[in-house]
Amino acid sequence: MFPIPNEVGRRIEVSMIGKNQLTIPIAQNLTSQLYDVSLYYRKDLSDSRKLSDDITMIEIADYEEDLLKRLGLFERDIVVCSTNDDHINKSVALMAKKHGVKRVICRLESTNEDPTLKHQGIEVFSNYLSNKILLKSLIETPNMLNLLSNVETSLYEIQMLNYQYENIQLRNFPFGGDIIFVRIIRDNDSIVPHGDTQLRYKDRLIVTGTKEYVDELKQELEFYY
């Protein structure tokens, strides 16, 4: 028997470093019942556009470690370092990892690889690399790109961390939302699901469906602790 923890309506806490033409639309689009978004920025380096009231705006004098710690940055689930300065991004990303942030994403425009960040498990991206992948996908697989970019038909990944659903068959899965299970990633295996497929703890579920139902399912399965 597995212990069943008390369910809480938990939200994923995401903090973004920098207020610019990249972080502003991402922060706006992330805001939902699933994500609690905050944005840390220096006024002298920031875009002046006003954001949604649902986004917590934190203006700071500089990206100093003690200040960021006092303001709770290192207590967030995900920290995205995306100012227009690679040095600031790398510095804050390493601070976040040092303080135990589970997922840290760092924007680097000068290089696509950084051994120090990679060694720390920090995910790296750049506008150049993202645009290159996007254009290649648009040329080679336009229908797949449309699927991924359509909010109502996108693919999402959900990790199964709720012991209540351990060993349950998909045909008996009680969630009534508009969800289709596309794949189940279990260890190194990719499983095509069917009605008799049983869920296992730590399965990674690739699903498609409306954003509202996906958010509900993610809260039920992934943040049940």
Automatic annotation (TrEMBL):
Pfam (any one): TrkA_C
Molecular function per GO: monoatomic cation transmembrane transporter activity
Gene Ontology BP, a term: potassium ion transport
InterPro entries: NAD(P)-bd_dom_sf, RCK_C, RCK_C_sf, RCK_N, Trk_Ktr_HKT_K-transport
Keyword Ion transport: yes
Alphabetical keyword list: Ion transport, Transport
Domain RCK C-terminal: 142-223
SUPFAM superfamilies: NAD(P)-binding Rossmann-fold domains, TrkA C-terminal domain-like
Name listed for the protein in its UniProt record: CPA2 family monovalent cation:proton (H+) antiporter-2
Organism this protein belongs to: human gut metagenome
